[in-house]
Amino acid sequence: MARLLENDALRILVENKLPVPRFDYVDTPEEAKQVAENLNVPVVLKALAPVGKRGEPGALVFADEPEQAELNAKTLLSSSIEQYPVKKVLVREKVNTDQELYVSISIDQGLKCPVVMVSAAGGVDYQEIVLRNPEKIRSVHLNPYKGLPDFVAKEIWADLGLSGSVLRDATAILTRLYQVFCRYDCNMLEVNPLVITKDSKVRIISVDMVIDEAALFRHPELNHLVQMGHDSEYHRPLTALEKNIADVNEADPYRGAVMFMELSDGDIAFMCGGCGGSLLMLDTLLQYGGRPANFLALNGNPSERKVYGLAKVMLAQPGVKGLFVCAGIANDMQVDVVARGIARALQEEHKGCGFPVLVRLAGVNDQIGREIFTTAGVEYYGEEITMTMAAQKMADRMKQL
Amino acid sequence: MGILVDRDSRVGIAGIAGLDALAMVKDMKRYGTSVLAGIAPGRKGETLQEIPVYDTIRQAVEAHAINTMLIYVSPAVTLDAVRETLANDIKLLVIPTGNIPAHDMLKVIYEIRAVEARLIGPNTVGLIDPAARVKLGSIGGGSAERFFAPGCVGVISSNAGMTAETAYMVKKAGLGVSTAVNIGEGALIGTTARELLALFEKDPQTQAVILFCEQGLLAQDEIVEFIEQGGFSKPLIVALADRFAGCMPQKDGFGFQASSVGSCDHKCPMRLKRAGVYVAGKYDDIIYLLQELQGVKLNYSEKPI
Description:
Shape of chain A: elongated
Strand content of chain B: 15-25%
Number of domains of chain B: 2
Distance between the termini of chain A: 39 Å
Number of strands of chain B: 14
Radius of gyration of chain B: 19 Å
Helix content of chain B: 25-40%
CATH class of the largest domain in chain A: Alpha Beta
Distance between the termini of chain B: 17 Å
Order of helices and strands of chain B: EHEEEHEHEHEEEHEHEHEHEHEH
CATH topology of the largest domain in chain A: Rossmann fold
Number of domains of chain A: 3
CATH architecture of the largest domain in chain A: 3-Layer(aba) Sandwich
CATH topology of the largest domain in chain B: Rossmann fold
Oligomer: heterodimer
């Protein structure tokens, strides 16, 4: 997931002529005070972290006076959100809200087209809107070539009860947001809330912008702005080990794609080809009482240097007492190349007797691979045993330690 | 028989000059696939892997009546290659390339639907028909015959690396494969598992189907509904990678919206079981389930020799 910090996302919206309250971002409490003084109105301070959730406890605070802004910024800058230490704080003009609206533009993975979802009940998590006020939601699926026509945007808001200048403004904002969604190759662009102010202006208050990693080549200006991280219910920053793996991967980006995750409380370093197979084998290892310490899904056709580098990092994880290499029958991955990389890493890390290494790889050049592994003292199997049997054997070897 | 390809598949490769494409084409030809033309702009007249190269798809179609196109160009130009293919009336496309921008894929899928063409992938090792000895993509590498026996079991895998493995489980059970297809990873793919089940239902050679999937990617409800509506009546075995799936980074999950948009569901496979699907508890259970099915539902005369 390539998520932008909110200050960067807001800046992009401003550049695209969308109405955003005056804001700045700071990394010290003193600057927060300065910004509040310059704005010369009550402000809102928000901790910046690449987390796509609203209302983190304590992440959003108000300040009527610059001194209060300084104090609050100090608190925010010493906190962390879902393990991300807060390094920057957004300071923006406080807006007098009359009504909160919600807009999200994303990709409907089932119907495989862009979808715009809008609600007249913003300001809370979308799931809450779905539960509490389903009648206040409108969604529209779009032709990726035709996009969002003005009249469709107008109809959506009119259906939700908007009229007058607010309807016209909200319509223009929605169509422009859709243009931003396309222009920057967003996976998701969410405005929550979009507010109608007491003096009937429509303003974007908070935005969450996620860029498609695969499209970053079209947006070199965003490359250094996006915040990479695991995005799941276990959302967290990369660990030191995971960063090391990422470095090895990026040093040789053109061959072999890597997904790596450090797990806790395990003793088996686990290298697999492909994500589905690795998930399956993690399940199977667990079923047989094995305890994976990490896993690395290696796709495509990696070079020897890459396999070697990855294996070195994995073997260096504290607590690792054995190595399991197991993949489905290879289409592209060359077993002999993998064998050379692993054999070299094992030798350099002095993993010999008492460090079980079990390999089950079959496919391209596996006869040569078998020789290399066997010479290196590795317990090697090809397709003569299934992946399940290999996992069982590995769990057994660990129990014998 | 089998689905999607047969001996009349006349194959062209867009992007033939890439290193991976060249290796792939070599294996495809050796397996028996009629790879008749390559496309690499500016290189007309060359011969690569004994295959004539053309500048445009139109030239290749005019010279060789190409009816099947592999598109192995870089992500940035894949959308254009798809348009060129469709403009030349080719209706079966396979895209091995991965990491194609999502917004481009939305357009690719829109164009494919508009002309009722069939796309396998992107990000796929392709498909194989062992009886016809046709393979499109790197599936099985250079030793496809070692792992894919011809027979009566259809194989669908959401995962590239597990496609040949799953087909090999069929061989271990003493059976063979009608067609094996890697549908590609992620949600924005041309053909889903359910759509392939519809094709396998109509194929007389296919008597059962195995589906391998990461649970988070399986559109379980869609498949269950399809079976309950009578869309697929043959035995279906599903092997899932599920326990760990819940804690994996979902590349295509969109924060809290994932629950209201899209095809991901993380429910246990009970609905599948109630719909009569055989769910393999361990991956090896595929072998035992197939062996049980042989006595019950599969026709022995269709077994490979």
